[in-house]
Design a protein that fits this description.
disordered N terminus, 15 strands, 13% strand, 6-stranded mixed beta sheet, alpha+beta, globular, single chain
Length: 446
């Protein structure tokens, strides 16, 4: 492999970044409450990998979705009174805990691609490649063909769920998480009411389902068919109404590694051959969120899910959880036996794709993004691929053919630089096969 250090200028092309660490686990036992009802949906052992539960995604206007990412989950939440006795977790402690649960402190050699998608409660997937890069950073021995085969077998799918964006989910989650967030999709339509005057939304959903279940349709084809029913409606509003009203998945070959194909849609039920689940209570999803992203506040989860009014679920679960405070006094919830590594645990460099959920899963992102780097992973509607060093956002990166350009936000020590190059070599070998590759260091320009 050829390594060339150089200086490049220009804005990063598509990155998203942060760095984390892992180490010694601290266990905190939750107080027993004999009056607390058992939750049959809760995982028996928070340390064990979650069952695959991740929906599919299918959406059309990527630019619109990217803009939404910055506006979702900002609903004000009344904070409950935090006990002054609750232990305080600083940014580094939260960083290490989150990275460990994300398998970014050490890659998992036990989870399959499908199991990892389930444990992470889905992977953001506005673009085709990010889920593959996300798993390459988290799984030992991962090959892109692993996720591609699971998608071809319909074990995982691409569907609009959290924050109204496309995610790669397990088949089970596609049929359960989508109903959980359906109320938010219904509210989303309020912004398009002017273009839907005179449109019967229930009838639109029925017609749309008949069309896409007869054969997968592109959004353009679906929109044109709906315009024959409502010629005076806004075409884009009609397509949004269909996307919000139905759990539409993107059928293969879209999303397969090394394959191309336009977005064609059908319903999750039709594609997976079984009905969606009734709208579930959020409690089980709260536990899964904490297992993958905790410790976290109520507002953190609301930002991740694009939902509101989750305080009640956290309060129901409080007897089964432990609580902490961050340095600002915000109450954080967690599973009693979840890993909380020492704050000084080493965190290796990691290359993350654009829109990685790690950077989108908390209202307060200081556990990943240093204060001086806030907002550096976005430029307009463009998200950058990110580099984590010592567990925190440290730069962005781009790949053009066999040239990988790394643009740190600050100076890397010789040792750090060597670690970053080693991780870059590994990522390139996994994602692009045999080299040679040219790994360069560039300069970020404002």
């Amino acid at each position: 492999m050829t390594r060339t250090s150089g200086t490049t200028t220009g804005s990063p092309e598509a990155y998203g970044a942060e760095v984390y660490g892992g180490g010694t686990h601290t266990r905190v036992q939750a107080p027993a409450d004999p009056k607390a009802p058992a939750d049959p949906k809760a995982p028996a052992d928070p340390k064990a990998p979650m069952d695959p539960k991740a929906p599919t995604e299918a959406t059309e206007e990527q630019a619109t979705e990217q803009a939404k990412e910055r506006t979702k989950g900002r609903t004000k939440v009344r904070a409950s009174k935090v006990s002054p006795a609750a232990p305080v977790l600083g940014p580094r402690a939260l960083n290490r805990a989150t990275l460990e649960r994300q398998h970014l402190l050490r890659r998992s050699a036990a989870l399959t691609a499908t199991q990892a998608v389930g444990h992470l409660v889905g992977l953001q997937a506005q673009n085709v490649k990010p889920p593959y890069y996300a798993l390459a950073a988290r799984l030992e021995g991962f090959r892109p063909e692993d996720l591609s085969a699971a998608m071809a077998d319909r074990a995982v799918v691409r569907i609009v769920t959290l924050r109204s964006t496309i995610h790669t989910h397990t088949a089970d989650d596609a049929l359960s998480l989508r109903p959980l967030v359906q109320a938010a999709r219904n509210r989303e339509l309020n912004a398009f009411r002017k273009g839907l005057v005179g449109v019967d939304l229930e009838r639109l959903a029925v017609i749309s389902r008949e069309l896409v279940e007869a054969e997968p349709r592109t959004m353009k084809q679906l929109r044109e068919a709906l315009l024959t029913q409502w010629p005076d409606a806004d075409p884009f509003a009609l397509s949004v109404a269909a996307r919000c009203g139905l759990p539409l998945v993107q059928v293969t070959p879209r999303g397969l590694w090394g394959r191309s194909g336009q977005v064609a849609l059908t319903t999750a039920e039709h594609w997976l051959g079984r009905p969606a689940e009734p709208t579930p209570a959020p409690d089980a999803t709260v536990l899964r969120y904490l297992a993958a992203f905790g410790p976290a506040s109520v507002k953190d989860m609301q930002t991740w899910a694009g939902l509101t009014r989750l305080r009640e679920a956290f309060e129901r679960l409080r007897p089964r959880l432990v609580t902490f405070r961050d340095e600002k006094g915000v109450e954080l919830f967690d599973l009693p036996d979840a890993p909380r590594p020492d704050a000084d645990t080493p965190a290796p460099p990691r290359f993350l794709p654009e829109f990685d959920n790690l950077l989108l899963a908390h209202a307060d992102r200081s556990r990943l993004v240093p204060a001086g780097l806030k907002g550096r992973t976005w430029a307009g509607n463009q998200a950058y691929r990110t580099l984590l060093v010592d567990g925190f956002l440290a730069g962005v990166w781009r790949q053009e053919g066999n040239v990988l350009t790394i643009e740190p936000f600050g100076t890397l020590t010789k040792g750090r630089r060597g670690e970053v190059v080693g991780e870059a070599e590994r990522m390139l070998s996994v994602m692009s096969g045999d080299g040679p590759y040219d790994i360069r260091f560039g300069t970020v320009t404002e």
